[in-house]
């Protein structure tokens, strides 16, 4: 009887057999594989969702940045009549010679206020040496205006470019030497910083040759000088069409590409397209697609990068001119 009890105890203490252990390991591997597969799929789905959200966010940022400049184009403080502003490009009566900007596009490009809007159709406009590494077959958009915030005389900065203006007249100047203009003591007279910008698609993001396109702009900064600035990595195309009011009735008669614009001073709206892509590749995703933008056919490769095309029509009310003689009286140049 004692022998049987010991034998039974030994049987209970024997543990798993090799077959049982291998079977348990196999079941564990299958379970872990399933968990890992679910985790991987969930992670990939999350990354894909994040990329899509980032695409939308980046696209909105690009459109809002350019759109803000376009909505302000052509206003120079208290006036949107460039002919009232002394020392503009080509003004021989200017009492002071404004300096060339370092890295300027063309000669004194930054003070060409009579051209608040300008563009290059799928190329860099002739002579625009300030735009480097331009991505072929993408547009260039030029915008000029004065910041709406007035700058007090005591806050003027050396090397910055300003326009002092009111509804009768105005004058461009650089630095702290504030000019005296007609009705200078009037309540509407104020200084405003001049902004001259050229948006374009670059073939690089961080360093030339990195193969990652981006939306950039050449911007007027203190000096005066032109500075190349990164706006949005991953932007691969910028296209612009311009809405012209040819008969002066206040409505847009046609939207055309830059090379078909008859008079940029009669452009009162712009239609924008920005094509951007994700920074990460999504394996297994077919990204080959054909886009038709401003009459151009763009074929994207099957490279695993998601893309998003966003477009918007922006009205430029500041470009609409009132009768100059009525607005400026006898002071119109």
Descriptive overview:
The chain is an alpha+beta fold and 333 residues long. Helix content is 21%, strand content 29%. It is built from three helices and 14 strands. The strands form three sheets. Strands 1, 2, 3, 4, 5, 6, 7 and 8 form an eight-stranded mixed beta sheet that branches. A hairpin with a 3-residue loop joins strand 7 and strand 8. The longest helix is centred in the N-terminal third of the chain and has 55 residues. It is elongated, with a radius of gyration of 31 Å.
Please sum up the structure shown.
It contains three helices and 14 strands. It is elongated, with a radius of gyration of 31 Å. Helices cover 21% and strands 29% of the residues.
How are the secondary structure elements laid out?
Blueprint: H1 2-12, H2 18-72, E1 85-86, E2 117-120, E3 140-146, E4 161-165, E5 170-174, E6 190-202, E7 214-221, E8 225-233, E9 235-244, E10 254-256, E11 267-277, E12 289-293, E13 296-300, E14 307-315, H3 324-328
Parallel strand pairs: 1-5
Antiparallel strand pairs: 2-3, 3-6, 4-5, 4-6, 6-7, 7-8, 9-10, 9-11, 11-14, 12-13
Features:
alpha+beta, eight-stranded mixed β-sheet, 333 residues, four-stranded antiparallel β-sheet, single chain, 14 strands
């Amino acid at each position: 009887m004692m022998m049987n009890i010991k034998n039974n105890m030994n049987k209970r203490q024997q543990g798993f057999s090799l077959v049982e252990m291998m079977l348990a390991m196999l079941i564990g591997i299958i379970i872990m594989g399933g968990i890992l597969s679910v985790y991987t799929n969930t992670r990939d789905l999350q990354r894909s969702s994040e990329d899509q959200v980032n695409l939308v966010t980046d696209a909105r940022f690009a459109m809002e940045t350019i759109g803000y400049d376009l909505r302000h184009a052509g206003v120079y403080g208290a006036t949107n009549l460039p002919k009232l502003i002394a020392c503009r490009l080509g003004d021989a009566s200017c009492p002071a010679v404004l300096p060339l900007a370092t890295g300027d596009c063309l000669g004194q490009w930054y003070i060409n206020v009579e051209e608040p809007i300008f563009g290059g159709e799928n190329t860099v406009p002739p002579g625009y040496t300030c735009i480097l590494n331009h991505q072929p077959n993408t547009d260039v958009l030029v915008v000029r205006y004065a910041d709406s915030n007035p700058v007090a005389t005591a806050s003027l900065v050396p090397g910055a470019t300003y326009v002092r203006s009111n509804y009768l007249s105005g004058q461009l100047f650089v630095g702290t030497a504030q000019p005296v203009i007609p009705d200078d003591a009037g309540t509407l007279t104020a200084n405003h910083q001049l902004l001259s910008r050229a948006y374009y698609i670059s073939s690089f993001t961080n360093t030339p040759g990195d193969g990652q396109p981006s939306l950039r702009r050449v911007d007027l900064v203190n000096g005066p000088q032109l500075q190349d600035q990164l706006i949005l990595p991953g932007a691969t195309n910028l296209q612009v069409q311009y809405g012209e009011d040819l008969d002066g009735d206040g409505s847009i008669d046609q939207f055309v590409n830059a090379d078909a614009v008859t008079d940029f001073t009669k452009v009162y709206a712009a239609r924008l397209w920005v094509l951007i892509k994700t920074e990460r590749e999504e394996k297994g995703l077919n990204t080959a697609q054909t886009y038709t933008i401003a009459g151009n056919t763009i074929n994207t490769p099957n490279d695993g990068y998601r893309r998003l095309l966003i477009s918007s029509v922006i009205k430029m009310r500041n470009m609409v001119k009132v009768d100059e003689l009525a607005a400026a009286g006898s002071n119109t140049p």
